[in-house]
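Example record

One chain of 128 residues, shown exactly as stored in the release files.
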Amino acid sequence: MTRAAFIFLLSACILGCGNKRSVIKKVHVNGVNILWFRESYLDNTRAFITLEDDKHIDTLVSCEEPIITDFLIVKDTVTIKMYDLKNAPIYHKTNHCKNYTIILKNATYEEWHKHYHPKERFYPVKGL
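Predicted structure tokens for this chain:
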């Protein structure tokens, strides 16, 4: 292989290893967007929920994946459902943002399973 081809392949690999963003859910309410997305890095994947308006982007929560199962907006409250909230690696969390109260709520294993394994059937285990 020539030196130019080697440099081209090496630079393509390096540039292709940047973070990749994938949007999971986007809701527009009262002039703001609430966005749940993942960013994939070389060694891990992080999830973010942000509140965006024309001037600012505020991060409501950032954590390792797969933890978030959904978010809901009711009036002035954003409820973020997360699996194993007690042990979840959360890097950033805010309680209030732009007249919204942010609440983290524990999701069940079944809710987590439905989101991350939608094609697999869930069989609950009784007695555990």
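Notes: Residues 67 and 88 are 7 Å apart (CA to CA).
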